[in-house]
Amino acid sequence: MGRIRCLNVAAAVLLGLSVSVTPTFAQNAQSGSGWSQEETQNIVQQVRQKISSLPDYAVFDWITFGIHDKTIVLKGYASRPMLKDEAARVVKDIKGVESVDNKIEVLPNSPNDDRVRAAVYNRIYTSSALRRYNANAGSLGRAMGPGPRVAAMAGGITADPPLGYHAIHIIVKNGNVTLFGVVNSKSDADIATMQANSAPGTFKVDNQLAVAGAPPKSEAK
Q1: Which is more confidently placed, 221 or 207?
Q2: Comparing C-alpha atoms, which of 147, 6, 146 is closest to residue 68?
Q3: 210 by DSSP, 3-state: which?
Q4: Domain count of the chain?
Q5: Does a structural domain hold residue 217?
Q6: Does 186 share its domain with 172?
Q7: What is the pLDDT of residues 78-96, one digit of tens each?
Q8: In the chain, which ranges are continuous DSSP H helix?
Q9: Does residue 30 form part of some domain?
Q10: Which of 92, 97, 197, 213 is buried most deeply by CB count within 10 Å?
């Protein structure tokens, strides 16, 4: 079985930020692709676009993908089961893709983890050093906007997350937090870790943030 090329779905959409974000989409060499180099590049672009455009893909999710022969291997974390299914569906519809190996982990449905998500979001995105990394540039309340949020009240923040581009994604599982995404500097990554650690209910923080221009970290999953 050939090696799987790992690719990152984090969109390089800057929304006016000063971040120079160019995710590395080919972190490992692959010897068993069933497409030509040009076809592979086209498939990669389509997978990136389709997944990053999913309406349910938000700050509390993180999806990566790889290629083996003509199969797309999906990995990462989904805060809601529907996202895992939607990701597989849109990728399978891409011309030339023969199958999808969906290894996305659906995170537990946990009220406590919901509270941790909200707390970490507020600590990170209200930080003066980090607020530029999202389009809302402020607190969770500002991100959610005015008016009643029925889904949020019924099922917590996971059911109704803040939308829009977020450079720092927050994955919470049983109180453990993992940060994914791309930031400008190591100091910003360190600040994100400190902010997440200071959030109530957080047990442990694993910082997988990449620094723009630095060698990519190995896959956490």
Answers
A1: 207
A2: 6
A3: strand
A4: 2
A5: no
A6: yes
A7: 999 999 999 999 999 999 9
A8: 37-52, 81-92, 111-125, 140-144, 150-155, 186-197
A9: yes
A10: 97
